[in-house]
Design brief:
The chain has 385 residues and is an alpha/beta fold. Helices cover 39% and strands 14% of the residues. It has 12 helices and 12 strands. The strands form 3 sheets. The chain has a 7-stranded mixed β-sheet, sandwiched between helices. Strands 9-12-11 form a 3-stranded antiparallel β-sheet, covered by helices on one side. The mean pLDDT is 95. The structure holds pyridoxal-5'-phosphate.
Length: 385
């Protein structure tokens, strides 16, 4: 059998860093262990009933065929209005592309823009998929470090901009740090993008999961709509991870590039799911507020609980993760996570999955019922105190 079966691009992507821990998890579970999974990246709530009903109705009405590749015109119009009204982005339905999840939109954006050797700035810590998408495109990554001391706000971007810098990817509210970038931080990035002529992919999937803070879209700044691809989706805000639906607003040339990839990959987002998306975005938003209120309750409980055990844990302003420095308790986060799993039956994600500089951090998801979080804190206490 030949050895070069997989392409160099696929070989350049690492296996998921959490796989080994998943294996241990599975072994323990098969022996009857009550594992609490604090590594989940999805809301534990059910999709609200009125959204499910819209999809059921669409199915019963025979809405089971291909749609236009960029999405149903009515959905694209509703999304453009949402982005104009809520996010102050100067866009129109012709710039909106709907796809099977925000992840595929990130993939299409990067692969529309990046040539072999082009540089992409990623802000560490970053969601794992950005690095993989850049590697698949043949691009090079320039990592910019952030730190807990600066509330994970990037400060030294200018130093890392080179002649080949074509794209910067930002994500606020941030997975894994929970940081929400301030207006000043975003303005600084916008000014650099204009001065040094690069594009910005702004992943705003957690925009509604935000506490006592304001979400600002970088595309709303002067001249930025022409150089920003704003990616968003319904997975997190409406508890719709399994439905696979997301959208982006992109400048026309980039939109055209993404559309070509879409036409030759997924064709379009699922037809009846697009109806569910119409009802979610244009329906009453009380369901979102309720979920966010529950996430906030859990965040406050968990941050208090962990800090009282002596863990250094910032109060995140968004998303549903805590990013915690565990250097006082273990050699590194991998050792800490393994100990938590084997001795406390708690699954957590080590920070090195999210880029350089966070080998001593773990990500703890609180998309888990509060009763389980209470048990989790007790188990951590039994191990570290
Ligand atoms: C920052 C970020 N962007 C995008 C996604 C994926 O969203 P979707 O389910 O719409 O593909 C995730 C999921 O974990 C995420 O954390």
């Amino acid at each position: 059998m030949r050895k070069d079966i997989l392409s160099n691009r696929v070989n350049s992507i690492e296996d998921s860093a959490t796989l080994r821990l998943n294996d241990i998890s599975e072994q323990l579970r098969s022996k009857g262990a009550d594992i609490i999974n604090l590594s989940v990246g999805e809301p534990d709530f059910d999709t609200p009933a009125f959204i499910r009903d819209a999809a059921k109705k669409a199915l019963d009405d025979g809405d089971t065929h291909y749609t236009p590749s960029a999405g149903k015109p009515r959905l694209r119009k509703i999304i453009a209005e949402k982005l104009k009204n809520e996010n102050k982005i100067d866009t129109s339905s012709g710039n909106i592309i709907v796809s099977a999840g925000a992840k595929h939109l990130v993939y299409m954006t990067v692969n529309s823009l990046i040539n072999e050797g082009d540089e992409v700035i990623l802000l560490s810590p970053a969601w794992v998929t950005y690095e993989a998408c850049v590697k698949i495109s043949g691009g090079r990554i320039n990592w910019i470090m952030t730190s807990a001391d600066d509330q994970f706000q990037p400060t030294n971007i200018q130093d890392m901009i080179g002649k080949k810098t074509k794209l910067l990817i930002l994500n606020s509210p941030n997975n894994p740090s929970g940081a929400v970038y301030s207006k000043d931080t975003l303005k600084m990035i916008a000014d650099l993008a204009i001065d040094y002529d690069f594009f910005v992919l702004s992943d705003e999937i957690y925009e509604k999961i935000i506490y006592d803070s304001e979400h600002v879209s970088i595309a709303s700044f002067d001249q930025m709509a022409d150089r920003t691809i704003t990616v968003n989706g319904l997975s997190k805000s409406y508890a719709m991870t399994g439905w696979r639906i997301g959208y982006a607003s992109a400048p026309k040339e980039i939109f055209d590039g993404m559309l070509k990839i879409q036409q030759h990959s997924v064709s379009c987002a699922p037809s009846f799911v697009q109806e569910a998306a119409i009802s979610a975005i244009s329906g009453h938003q009380e369901c979102v507020n309720e979920m966010v209120a529950e996430f906030k309750r859990r965040r406050d409980f968990l941050v208090d609980g962990l800090n009282s055990l002596g863990m250094r844990c910032l109060l995140p302003k968004g998303a549903f993760y805590l990013f915690v420095d565990v250097s006082d308790f273990a050699k590194d986060a991998n050792e800490f996570s393994e100990k938590m799993l084997k001795e406390g039956y708690l699954a957590m994600t080590p920070g090195d999955a999210f880029g350089p500089g966070f080998e001593n951090y773990i990500r703890i998801s609180y998309a888990v019922p509060i009763e389980r979080l209470k048990v989790a804190v007790k188990r951590i206490e039994n191990i570290i105190v």
